[in-house]
Amino acid sequence: MRFLQMGSRMLSRTSPLGLIAGGTVAALAVPAVRKGLRRAAVVTLSGILSLTDEAKQHSAASRQKIQELIDEAKSTDHKLAYKKLKDNLKEQPRRMAVAATAGVLAASDKAKGLAHNASHGLKTVVADARELRNQNSAGNTQTTEINDGLEGEFTDLPEH
């Protein structure tokens, strides 16, 4: 009971930022949460790296197409070359946006799955802790009964 009162006083005196920081530290102390956060970070970084590689490939392809258009423009009509360049530049950003969105959606789906798994793991840990607490509280009553019986027997023995 005193523990609950002490906890209540401590919570009422702590700022919300302190509670958030304490909760974060407590969450990071659970290995399942740390593992889930690490996986989420790996998936996020993997998505970012794939997006940058995709952007590099598209920019290289764009540069090559622009160079081809420049060469063609030098040898042909300027109006036709300008029209082709304009059409190609309209198409490339859309492709990059679609690729980026697909990468973000994949990372988001993976993060949701990891969060669900971490939540389930945490629920299992809490259930196991409650079961252990219930077993310990049942075991403590048996221990006091045994100790009470032993104390009675030891008082009957003569001292040396």
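That was protein one. Protein two is written in the same sequence-then-structure order:
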Amino acid sequence: MVPKKLERITNLQQQGLHKLALLNMERCPITATCLDSLSNLVALLFLNLSRSNITDDGCDKFSKLKSLKVLNLGFNDMSDAVLSHLKGEIS
């Protein structure tokens, strides 16, 4: 059974949010499944995931966010290896 909060995040695309440009999820617990769903929001320009307990798991999904201009990953538990998923994505 999927917890209600996680279910809402994983259904973002189905909720008609495909044009969403700004998303602030600071201090919201984010899992690899959540990152997979967030990566479908291809119109995102600004994404704040600071203080969200993110680890390296699922961070490869950031490379799908081609329109992203600002990504805040501050104060999470990620290694420098995550930067490899962002290499070449920064304009």
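The chain has one domain: 9-86. Keep this in mind for the problem set.
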